[in-house]
Write a structure and sequence with these properties.
Elements lengths: L1 E6 L2 E4 L4 E9 L4 E9 L6 E7 L5 E3 L7 E6 L4 E6 L8 E9 L4 E3 L3 E6 L1
Parallel strand pairs: 2-11
Antiparallel strand pairs: 1-3, 3-8, 4-5, 4-9, 5-6, 7-8, 9-10, 9-11
């Protein structure tokens, strides 16, 4: 089993920045990817960013490219999401996700990000 604990959400004005963190514990040796999804009010959960644990290749949703940066600290089993130039439409609950090599998925509890205009 894998446990994910997110932190770093909050309230910020448009144009501001936040950094989310997600620490993984448990059976993390088989981590394949870690990433972030979000669920905006009234919308389905959507992909935001992903990092491949071996090699560090990253992918982003078009809506966040150039503004968000995902990074990892392998020694700490932690993934980060640096969010810059935040917009009101970035308001959402952000979820950390981990996928193992056997394609099992684990989710964090979610952290609220609110961007005021």
């Amino acid at each position: 089993q894998v446990q994910l604990v997110e932190s770093g959400g909050g309230l910020v004005q448009a144009g501001g920045s936040l950094r989310l963190s997600c620490a993984a514990s448990g059976r993390t040796a088989s981590t394949y990817t870690m990433g972030w999804f979000r669920q905006r009010p009234g919308k389905e959960r959507e992909f935001v960013a992903r990092v491949y644990w071996s090699g560090g290749t990253t992918y982003y949703a078009d809506s966040v490219k150039g503004r968000f940066t995902i990074s990892r600290d392998s020694a700490k089993n932690t993934v980060y999401l640096q969010m810059n130039n935040l917009r009101p439409e970035d308001t959402a609950v952000y979820y950390c996700a981990l996928r193992t090599g056997s394609l099992s998925d684990y989710w964090g509890q979610g952290t609220q990000v609110t961007v005021s205009s």
